[in-house]
Amino acid sequence: MFEFVIGRDKLLEKIKDLVARKRYAELRGLLLPLEGADIAAIFEDLEDHDLPLVFRLLPKEQAAEVFVELDSDEQEMLIQGFSNTELKEVLDELYLDDTVDIVEEMPANVVKRILMHSDPEMRRNINDILKYPEDSAGSIMTTEFVDLKKDMTVADALKRIRRTGPDKETINVCYVIDTNRRLIGVLSIRTLLLAEEDDIIGDIMEQNFISVRTLDDQEQVARSLSKYSFLALPVVDTEERLVGIVTVDDAMDVLQEEVTEDIEKMAAILPSDKPYLKTSIWETFKARIPWLLLLMISATFTGQIISSFENALAAATVLTAYIPMLMDTGGNCGSQASVTVIRGISLNEIEFSDIFRVIWKEIRVAVICGITLAAANFVKLLLIDRLLFQNELVTIPVACVICITMVCTVLCAKIVGCTLPLLAKKIGFDPAVMASPFITTIVDAISLLIYFQFASAILGL
Amino acid sequence: MFEFVIGRDKLLEKIKDLVARKRYAELRGLLLPLEGADIAAIFEDLEDHDLPLVFRLLPKEQAAEVFVELDSDEQEMLIQGFSNTELKEVLDELYLDDTVDIVEEMPANVVKRILMHSDPEMRRNINDILKYPEDSAGSIMTTEFVDLKKDMTVADALKRIRRTGPDKETINVCYVIDTNRRLIGVLSIRTLLLAEEDDIIGDIMEQNFISVRTLDDQEQVARSLSKYSFLALPVVDTEERLVGIVTVDDAMDVLQEEVTEDIEKMAAILPSDKPYLKTSIWETFKARIPWLLLLMISATFTGQIISSFENALAAATVLTAYIPMLMDTGGNCGSQASVTVIRGISLNEIEFSDIFRVIWKEIRVAVICGITLAAANFVKLLLIDRLLFQNELVTIPVACVICITMVCTVLCAKIVGCTLPLLAKKIGFDPAVMASPFITTIVDAISLLIYFQFASAILGL
Fold it and tell me: Chain B contacts of A308, Cβ < 8 Å?
């Protein structure tokens, strides 16, 4: 693997060279031992007009593996160039859930061509899955699973797996259904292999299994798979009939996407599902500007607070210099608390009912943090600002105002930071939106209000 | 699954009630159908003195499943209470990699007891894995895999799997080794089952496989597993000898942990591997205070900048009110760019060699964002602040200073935000540390310098 990463640029060079010199047999030999995902990565760096040519060199099965891993732009380009026979060949090799993923990204005319060249059963299955809402278990499941009956023997079951296995996404877990297609048991290939030939499936199957519903949220489904360390989870409809399975590789992709979305939201970006370097300037702009505008406007309230204390500031100009430090520290404290709680919520470690435990914990942490920061600040103010830089305006009362403000700001910031994500979750908002930038804006205003209150009280402004 | 979440509190009530009334048979019946992970979650809410009692009700195999899922505090408590026979029973049921995970978390006296009651082979294997550095592939692998020889027939191989399978972590992928234990091929159970009984393993095995080294970073290994959609990856030593495998469930856990770490670092928190509610106040404090102190001290530079322009501010007090808005917007723009790039780096979408493409993209996005924000701001300044609030100090030159500063700040923030994570990566630092709080502190200083430069130039202060 790591040899591959290091050698990638060289490999790309070599491939381009072979294409230019039309040494196709050699090129094919070079690609054959590689994994689909790696070839796809190389294809993205090839010239567009070379791509169909190189793609056609691959054997059918490998071609399908590579095709699945390509970005939708490249997939579309290849499909547009395919003859009908070529398209059918690639489609025949794809698993159903991958075909559905591709169909979801393609423009209408391409979708029509794909459906036209799928066999009738595949077409019906694609349409079935497309019905399910985005982000639901139904939309990421595959219907290509192994189903068994409970009165089969192990030998019958193995025969069935040998017969139907090649078209299934996985044979590692098999599902036992009754005559109404209701799911009644789950069986791993390991149990099956370790059993005796004449054991009855109904006797050895696991009857205590976990299943999900077609409309369950894909992130929750992926988290369950990870929590229980399963390789697949069965998806049932409202009548407990087995309609599909979600496999662990798709669950991993879902978790990665959801994490990226969460991180983007935490940084005040509207989530996108394209890699950064593939996103156009305009799309990036549209993802970033809404929050920037909103936060800019709310930050003007902070400005209003400063304006309304203009006289106090004019009387003690030294106070202005410490505004950024107080605001930044407040913002950092708030974002530490909020981000920790947001992550806890998405890992199902923290629930709304924990809110008082969380607040009580944050209060205690805030007090220790606040006092430590204030103490460090007090020493710095008097030793460095007053003694070293000879700033006579930094008197002990001024230092007291700054340090007391620090403690109170940290306390407020931590409480606001841990409470807002939980409240957001409660009222059905996405907690991730309540991260740093949002908290910062609120905490800025709070810290200034506290600052000027103490300044008025202690310095008598 | 979802029924379980909803019913959890009720279930806990019921269990506590059955414990109190000593109705153990009924309690056992209640627990039997549940998954290990779910029982473990319930155990964490039980009273400490009830835990060993309820644990002993579980059948051996289920007890082991639950034990693995418990937090290390509870595991330690249970082990301390186990008789030697009980300890041996639980250990016998555990997979090697789970035992290693437990050993790593236990205090020395418990480790000694565990090693004393493992059989000699297990003990040697545990010690072997403990040798590997934390976060390496070796530290998360298991040595319980199925190995085959290339001259076996499929029937031989199936016989071997039936014989040794029960002790293996997975039989879904088998590994073919030569007489020196060098890995020469990989074979899925599906290929094996679909082959003819007298096929030779050497002919049907996959010779183009991906393997990792014992010292490879666990995150990279987990990403490879996810990228190639594998169920397990073989781990080889420097002489290509197969020493273990990493399975997909462990890879998922690694990815989740690494993401949590990244998110914590982005929020200026030192990463911890304990769930939030399990972390003590003191640990949370220690994880948060270093960055708070560092960032507080660096924020004082921002204060220095304000101090040095005190006269300018005194002459045009109106400028002070817009400092928070400029600083916040700069910080938000910078963190959008940095967080996007950090995530891109950890998903291997962006590399250092892309730095100029990234900067060029951010410059263009920054120009559009900056102009939009400045335009919105200009309108707001003149319509709301000047006309509505009758603030006569907000003249057109003042509005120009603020808006030009806005454009320049956004531009600098985006460039700094996208560059620092890539530079950090290049010099071997963790890019995630270069997120919002760090960028904010730098951008604060930059935005103030720009502000006062334009103020001096345009307003002639």
Answer: none
